[in-house]
Amino acid sequence: MAKANRIGITVLVSFFGMFICFAQNKKSKGDDYFFQYDYQKAISAYELDLTEGAISKQQFVNLADAYFHINNFEKASEIYLSVYNKDTVMSNHRLNKMLQSLSKTANKERLGEFLQNMSPRFQREFLENFEFNTQLLEGSNVSEEMDFQIFNLNGNSAQSDFSPSFYGGKLLFSSGRLPDTKKRYAPAGEGYLNIYEAGLQSDGQILTAQPFSEIANSDFHKATPYYSKELRSVFYVLSNTEDGELSFDDNGKNALAIGMQVKDGRFQLLLKDLSTSFYYPFYDEKTERLYFSANFDEGFGGTDIYFVHTNRGQIMSAPINLGPRINSAGNEIAPYIFENSFYFSSDVFYGLGGMDVYRSNIDGDTFSIPINLGRGINSSDDDFGLIMRNEGDGLLGYFSSNRAEGKGKDDLYGFKVDKKPGLKTITIKGTVVKNKRKSGFVDKAAVRLWNVNGEMLTETFSDNEGNYRLEVPWEKELVLESSKERYSMFTKRFTQEELEGVENIDYDIEVSAYDDLVEKKEGQAVVKLKKFFFGRNGTQLTPEIETELDKVVAFVKNFPSVQLRIETYTDSRGGNSTNFRLTQDRSNAIKKYLVQQGVPSSNIIYSIGYGEDKILNNCTNGVFCLEMLHQQNQRSLIVVLNDNVLFE
């Protein structure tokens, strides 16, 4: 990560102290070079120590990291694997480096083996992000997305130029170019970073760059600016200093702080810790959150993205980690929000290069799976710090990269495009509810998406309030499915016409609970219906009867494996044989209607009339009873014959 070396993003995690050293008290020149980010000299010094047999396990891992930072991934992976085989208790950040080294060599099978073995080590969100982006980048639509030109800015220098930010009609950026008045920052072989400004031209190119004069002068680092139009303020990082000289912690480390310079106003130091570096501030005017990257020990990997609540830029809370949906075992930097999408860069091992740009959609306080923007914006090298804004009929954007065709170590690149760049995905979210009872949430329901070939793309379960969310690479057609034991199966097919041009679909899934539709009557399970009556000695279905029978039609549609028996009874009035014929005709009329409405005849095993065989009260032959008592014996039941085995 070239830009990381320039501003000290390399994180020296507490993992090192967990090793038992072969030469515990042995001091090496390699340590000095390593902690100054001079990795080539560190390698030479450590290799010399190795020939003398005097190197600690910590220094051995430093050697692997040094090879990693000069892109010698073969050597780095050999050492990481050696360390892992001797002691598998490695930090997630170092595991990411090992996996990244393996992914950049021909050792793909070994990478797969390690991922399978180490999956319990990682957060569920991290594994979901990995699986999703792997599927996305291997998909057929990767090459279809990038149909616009990316151009190198004429104002790039032979040194590092990165971290662009809009400043009205100008562009601010960080640079390590070497004016005569600047001190040299030895590890990077260039000047201490400074912030520059350049006017923007109509074609997206920039005019001659000049040092940005609206922040205080310093002989040390000033970098990664962000301008807030609402606050009329520039947020940026700067070296910790005291009385004009660098400040160091007890371990001799100089870190980076975040400050805010009000235009034509005062400067305020916002975030400072001599042992912790802060990077890439971004102020979201909508939420008044100040986002940034930092290397706190309790993070998920290396450098994570955090935010603090502010009151117009004044810090009002402790740093809050964005969590495992955004932060990974690698380094995450350069947060940026545009039109409800959260952009950032990460060197997580499953990307296209070292550092790649990702996009996550914001939904309240949650984030969707971060999506790799694909080839074009991303390359096999480091790509980071993307910004965008509306310009004319399209979008104007910039980012930084150290790809081979550039002028310097890191270069600024621009692009113009009609729509937001990135690979196409589709998100379907909503609530699983009981049919016609929107307040009846269904939790723990399985929700799946399938493609037209019958392959399951993803699966989730509804939460305690019935909410679900699924995201997949864009498909021409999708099938949404939901199931839960003792609930109806739900299926919905989304056509290409419905999905075309859509990124998000809100869709509530309505299911029926079996236990809400069935009840016990007369010692057996029956479909729950309101009691209905035929006309005196009649067999014709009334509209009221049909309304109730429509519930049976819906029941069979929701539970197509049910086996039914139609039972009809009448009272004791009339002759026995007449009553048998009457109830049989009524049962047959019910069956005929159900079949006409779409119930397969194979679901109706029996259709029986019982006449007056099963009188429920004392109103038998010859006994005088009120009409209401006789009506208790007039009834039709839809019995579920396989109730006891239906869900086995």
Quick summary:
The chain is of the alpha+beta class and 648 residues long. It has 13 helices and 40 strands. Strands 14, 15, 16, 17 and 18 form a 5-stranded antiparallel β-sheet that branches. Strands 19, 20, 21, 22 and 23 form a 5-stranded antiparallel β-sheet that branches.
Outline the structure in words.
- There is one protein chain.
- With about 650 residues, the protein is an alpha+beta fold.
- Helices cover about 20% and strands about 30% of the residues.
- The strands form eleven sheets. Strands 14, 15, 16, 17 and 18 form a five-stranded antiparallel beta sheet that branches.
- α3 (about 40-50) runs antiparallel to α4.
- The longest helix has 21 residues, at about 575-595.
- The two termini are about 55 Å apart.
What class, by secondary structure content?
alpha+beta
Q: What Rg is obtained from the alpha carbons, in whole angstroms?
A: 35 Å
Helix content: 10-25%
Discrete helix count: 13
Tell me the layout of helices and strands:
Blueprint: H1 2-7, H2 29-35, H3 39-51, H4 57-69, H5 73-86, H6 92-103, H7 108-118, H8 124-137, E1 150-152, E2 161-167, E3 170-175, E4 184-185, E5 190-191, E6 194-199, E7 210-211, E8 222-228, E9 233-239, E10 241-242, E11 245-246, E12 256-262, E13 267-271, E14 278-284, E15 289-294, E16 304-311, E17 314-315, E18 320-321, E19 332-338, E20 341-346, E21 356-363, E22 366-367, E23 371-372, E24 383-391, E25 394-401, E26 411-417, E27 425-434, E28 437-441, E29 446-450, E30 456-461, E31 467-473, E32 478-483, E33 490-494, H9 496-499, E34 504-506, E35 509-511, H10 514-517, E36 518-521, E37 524-527, H11 543-558, E38 564-569, H12 576-596, E39 604-609, H13 627-632, E40 635-640
Parallel strand pairs: 27-34, 27-35, 38-39
Antiparallel strand pairs: 1-26, 2-3, 3-6, 4-5, 6-7, 8-9, 9-12, 10-11, 12-13, 14-15, 15-16, 16-17, 16-18, 19-20, 20-21, 21-22, 21-23, 24-25, 25-26, 27-28, 27-31, 29-30, 29-32, 32-33, 36-37, 38-40
Helix pairs in contact: 2-3, 3-4, 4-5, 5-6
